[in-house]
Design brief:
Order of helices and strands: EEHEEHHE
Shape: globular
Oligomer: single chain
Structural class: alpha+beta
Helix content: 25-40%
Strand order of the largest sheet: 4-3-5
Distance between the termini: 19 Å
Strand content: 25-35%
Radius of gyration: 12 Å
Number of helices: 3
Length: 86
């Protein structure tokens, strides 16, 4: 991770501001199946966690325990220093 990225950011999730930690994202990734060309989603934004790609909305939603839209997920993961790509 880039050294200038914080370990925790305040994210607005469904209108509520809450802290989200980088470690929560890593833990969520362990509970999800990595993205696959065999399994399509309605959106195609991905985040790199470790050596695997994950769908940004699914990853952020798993980490915070609430549904997160794609735009908010992209911004959250980027702010925490995870590479995000389309």
């Amino acid at each position: 991770m880039p050294k200038n990225k914080p370990a925790v950011v305040d994210a607005t999730i469904n209108g509520t501001v809450q802290p989200v930690h980088r470690d929560e994202i890593r833990a969520a990734a362990t509970r999800l199946t990595p993205a696959s060309s065999n399994r399509t989603m309605e959106f195609s934004w991905y985040a790199l966690v470790g050596e695997e790609l994950y769908y940004v909305a699914a990853l952020a939603s798993e980490a915070v325990g609430a549904e997160v839209d794609v735009k908010a997920a992209r911004l959250l993961l980027h702010d925490l220093g995870f590479p995000v790509m389309a």
